[in-house]
Design a protein that fits this description.
The chain has 380 residues and is an alpha+beta fold. It is 20% helix and 32% strand. Among the domains are: 2-53 and 153-245, Gyrase A, domain 2; 297-371, Aminomethyltransferase beta-barrel domains (Elongation Factor Tu (Ef-tu), domain 3, Beta Barrel). It contains eight helices and 20 strands. α2 packs across α7 (236-245). It comes from Streptomyces boetiae. It catalyses: N(6)-[(R)-S(8)-aminomethyldihydrolipoyl]-L-lysyl-[protein] + (6S)-5,6,7,8-tetrahydrofolate = N(6)-[(R)-dihydrolipoyl]-L-lysyl-[protein] + (6R)-5,10-methylene-5,6,7,8-tetrahydrofolate + NH4(+).
Length: 380
Amino acid sequence: MTDTLRTTALDGVHRALGAILTGFAGWSMPLRYGSERAEHQAVRTAAGLFDLSHMGEITVSGPEAGAFLDYALVGRLSAVPVGRARYTMICAEDGGILDDLIVYRLGPETYLVVANASNAAAVLGALNDRLAGPAEAASRGFDAEVRDDRDAYALLAVQGPAAARVLGGLTDADLPGLKYYAALPATVAGRAALLARTGYTGEDGFELFCVPDDAEALWGALTEAGAPHGLTPCGLACRDTLRLEAGMPLYGHELTAATTPFDAGLGRVVKFDKPGAFVGRAALTAAAERAATAPPRTLVGLVSRGRRVPRAGYAVVDASGAVVGEVTSGAPSPTLERPIAMAYVDAAHASPGTEGVAVDIRGSHEPHEVVALPFYRRPS
């Protein structure tokens, strides 16, 4: 099966390590190398090393790059300082989420947009379409360029409480001074990389963007430097349980084209105070008003009182058996040692501690506790 999929620059490394490979968003990716639970716990207690080269990088540059991204996305990217990053979204005219993104400002006129692998082509297409600007405006469009850089980068991530110690001996970058959601050009193990303090695990960590030809050398250097600190290679399976414990949404589960940022409890990413039009503004204004006056289903956490695992698509029911919501993600939690889930539920059942909530697991109504997200926060 994997022969028909795209492979990253680290495919040979994964195979040599005995990784179980799986198809994901058109890519052959490591699902796990050994024990998913052990990989998860390594990230929580020491450090994990991930290959994320399937992610989609898009460079936006030019004199009006910031103004263009303000129009194309829901955030105010023109206000992001050089060297910082911003979590944001790209929405359709009807307010539905096309993807959630991290955007790095690399220079006064240069931004790096990082899209989910499954949506990268759609995001690239939407950005190119939006260069023309709003239909009611002058037809000149924005003085900006959108460039597909998906093949220009490999992406490695070191995540966990020991991440800074692993990297510390390999780079002269000021790691203590690098803030969360900041990035800088650096040399790591003698290789040029964009070093970012970002991640998707709920732990401290770093992501390294490099040219694909340098990926194996960097992986090897990080592996050697990380050995005394318990660094473990990690696959997509534990990445999913880590982000679930941290309450981080996943596109296709908590976020969809039928969901607005306000439905997902992420209305804060929509910046109505930025000047000018932006795609989806009218629909998102209406969504914000609905959320304030008559909230739709709310995204909550569920912790099982038993051992059966709730999965995406399972119904959430009340004491009478009436359906009051739907699970979006679920898995056993290695940290809580209980099955957990995120679910959209009716507002009447969304308060932490709500009694009588259960998940219909193959016809059996399994009791669950409603809790506030996230399930896990790293120690301060």
